[in-house]
Amino acid sequence: MLDVIRSDIRQLTAYQVPDARGLIKLDAMENPYSLPAALRAGWLAALEHTELNRYPDPQARTLCEVLRQTMAIPEHCGLLLGNGSDELIQILALAVTGANQRLLAFEPGFVMYRLIAQLTGLEYIGVTLTADAFALDLDRALEAITRQHPALTFIAYPNNPTGNLFDPQGIEKIIEAAAPGLVVFDEAYAPFANASFMPYLETAPNLLILRTVSKMGLAGLRLGYLVGAAECIDELNKVRLPYNINVLTQHSATFALRHQAIFNQQTEQICSERQRLIAAFNAIAHIHCYPSAANFLLLRLSNAPAVFDHLKQQGILVKNLHGSHPLLNNCLRITVGTPEDNTALINVLFQC
Ligand SMILES: *Cc1c(COP(=O)(O)O)cnc(C)c1O
């Protein structure tokens, strides 16, 4: 019976998420702080009258209004919600797929672009970043775009797993060269970066901005959003399955965003801990720490797999990137945790 399953799918392995039970979890860019106790009663009250027997509002109108108010979304732009931004990447891919259609992204980068391209039948083109600083090589990018005419180009800004912000100088050229292909700025880490291409929506009709509430502290809700020209968002909306944002997510996210100040405080704390970690790593001779505008740090060590194993034995789970891309040999990616988590991490690394 498995013969009916596509052979390219049978050759895949399912997306692996390691078991983190009992470990300090610094592998998945989660905000380490849960909803503060003072807000929990209000949150539960907001959920109390949820009608679980009814379908959710298919347009999630209240949530969309709050997002527009809190996330500086230009008034004339369209807004599309996804069950995580991963779902929006899938919606984009499904909307453009067809014979000889391509998806272009930069490597090392976010693995979902390649996976979703493969699953939706798009040809995937990976353009390599510079080896020393993981910078975007503008000439290489423009050459690939003008030769391949990708229907979709993804730019993670800041990039995952490298953590850097690409130099915005010249990126408009990529947006122009890719037209009429869509260029998606994946700004999953915008809260930690103080940088966004949102203002460019005014002038670039083929530009889309992809965001998520996952990294700012609501990963459990699964909510992403896509902003762009209203006509384009209207077309993409036809691909979205009805009711993709469940009632609990709609009510919880609406409540949380109305208390955005809490998340801004947590973000500030994470950014100051990021600086403390950078200083600590720079004081360890065998560690090279790359600059980061995100809530994680990329480290290069002399033997990353051994350090990964040792950290795990000591109860700390990080992401081992060794073997995932040639430019990431001996690299680990470490999410910024609570001050206590980070101190535990520094202590183990000092002894390595
Ligand atoms: C984490 C991440 C996402 C996925 O976000 P979800 O909304 O949780 O699906 C998307 N893009 C990048 C670059 C990420 O690192």
Question: How would you describe the overall organization of this protein?
Answer:
The protein has helices spanning 7-10, 37-48, 61-70, 85-96, 111-120, 138-148, 171-178, 190-193, 214-218, 230-237, 247-257, 260-282, 304-313, 339-351; strands at residues 24-25, 78-82, 102-107, 123-128, 152-156, 182-186, 207-212, 224-228, 288-289, 296-300, 316-317, 319-320, 331-335. It has 352 residues and is of the alpha/beta class. The strands form three sheets. A seven-stranded mixed β-sheet has the order 2-8-7-6-5-3-4, with helices on both faces. Strand 3, helix 5 (111-120) and strand 4 (123-128) form a beta-alpha-beta unit. The longest helix has 23 residues, at 260-282. It is globular, with a radius of gyration of 21 Å. The model has no long low-confidence stretch (mean pLDDT 97). Bound molecules: pyridoxal-5'-phosphate. Residues 29, 84-86, 110, 156, 160, 186, 188, 212, 214, 219, 224 line the site of pyridoxal-5'-phosphate.
Question: How would you concisely characterize the structure shown here?
Answer:
The protein is an alpha/beta fold. It has helices spanning 7-10, 37-48, 61-70, 85-96, 111-120, 138-148, 171-178, 190-193, 214-218, 230-237, 247-257, 260-282, 304-313, 339-351; strands spanning 24-25, 78-82, 102-107, 123-128, 152-156, 182-186, 207-212, 224-228, 288-289, 296-300, 316-317, 319-320, 331-335.
